[in-house]
Amino acid sequence: MDKQDLIDRFIFAQFIEACHCLEEGIAPAKDIDLAMRIGAGLKEGPLAWADSVGLDAIFWKLKALSARHGARFAPPALLQQMVEENRLGVKTGKGFHDYAS
Amino acid sequence: MYIFKAAVVGAGAMGAEIAEVISASELPVVLKDLDDAMVAKGLKRIEGIYAERVKRGKMTPQEMRNKMDLVIPATTFDDFGDVDFVVEAVPERIEIKKAVFAELDQVCPGQTILASNTSALSISEMASATKRPDKIVGFHFFNPASVMKLVEVIPGSQTSEETAATAMEFAQSLRKIPVRVKECPGFLVNRILMAGMAELLRVQEESGASPEEIDAVLRQAAGLPVGPFLLADMLGLDVVYHVAKTLEAAYGDRFHVPESLARLVEANHLGVKTGQGFYTHTA
């Protein structure tokens, strides 16, 4: 068993679903992260996590995962758009959340 | 709208815990189930939660008695004539839910809000069993409800803004943290969690790795408090399977449910409650 691949698949599957929820207007980003922390016991919400990793890195990781495991890992349209607009998360001050410099 | 009295229908683990939460906030709450034995079991669970708090010095025996007195056991709807907010926590089958909602619609005052603690079923469909679809709302607690802070508040397609707002306020008055969620299969937290779980089931099927191995890797690397397979055993694999199938039907391939989970459920290996699931549990 490839441990890193296992961890990636688990974390990125949840991240992609969080993206779909955001795209579909199920809840705003702050509520998605809040609910995942207090309802699922995560230390960090999936969207805040992606912001801290960097959305460009997340995007390329998803490209690699989808090549290896299938289209379900394809980067969501919203993520692609954010990367194109240079909204890359913490490092650019804007991602799923806003970060005051 | 102020809630003076509430009711919970279904005195199973979830229903009892919800009644505990309501009584802990000093509100009278009717706890109703089909027969005395089921209600007694629910009461016992509530008593257990309070007794533990007394033991830990968090409340006095007198406070415990006062809170227990707020729980009104019932096997009929006689005490529902003046309730403001009902939470339904009966088994997760749509036909059972709809029957309960139709009955609640008959016995409760016209302004009463009827909420469902469902984790996966359609709020709008339950609402269709009543003549007050504007007053039906999803009110989803997490397990165990006496501890977990989150409540997902899910308005259905016809739920009024006032009902949604009241449900949000009521959850806050119970010292919970409500998050408003647009209706969709799985709602928010279970949908995201199950996306991860579905992927793990796929890993297991492909690699033949054991649930123990996978849980250990994820606890270590992802900092999860409980491994996902053990968590599934705790929730009950029948519940997990039901939610998983609902999500697969709604969202397709990324929620693919492997045969292995179906086989466990068919064999009545439902997790902690039957002693066998992904893990073997000894009492």
Brief account:
The complex is a heterodimer of chains A (about 100) and B (about 280). Chain A is mainly α and about 100 residues long. Helix content of chain A is about 65%, strand content about 0%.
Summarize the structure in words.
The complex is a heterodimer of chains A (101) and B (283). Chain A is mainly α and 101 residues long. Chain A has five helices and no strands. The radius of gyration of chain A is 13 Å and the shape is globular. The relative contact order of chain A is 0.16. With 283 residues, chain B is α/β, with parallel strands linked by helices. Helix content of chain B is 48%, strand content 13%. The N and C termini of chain B lie far apart (46 Å). Chain B has eleven helices and eight strands. In chain B, helix 1 crosses helix 2. The A-B interface holds A 1, 3, 6-7, 9-11, 13-14, 16-18, 21, 24-27, 31-32, 34-36, 38-43, 46, 70, 72 and B 142, 148-150, 152, 177, 179-182, 184, 187-189, 191-193, 195-196, 198-200, 202-203, 207, 209, 213-214, 217-218, 221-226, 228, 253-254.
- The CATH superfamily of chain A appears as N-(1-d-carboxylethyl)-l-norvaline Dehydrogenase, domain 2
Low-confidence stretches of chain A: none
Span between termini of chain A: 41 Å
Largest sheet, strands/sense/barrel of chain A: none
CATH superfamily of the largest domain in chain B: NAD(P)-binding Rossmann-like Domain
Q: Rg of chain B to the nearest angstrom?
A: 19 Å
How would you name the oligomeric state of the polypeptide chains in this document?
Answer: heterodimer
CATH topology tier name of the largest domain in chain B: Rossmann fold
Give a count of the beta strands of chain B, DSSP E runs of length 2 or more.
8
The CATH class of the largest domain in chain B turns out to be Alpha Beta
Domain count of chain A: 1
Q: Report the β-strand fraction of chain B as a percent range.
A: 5-15%
Structural class of chain B: alpha/beta
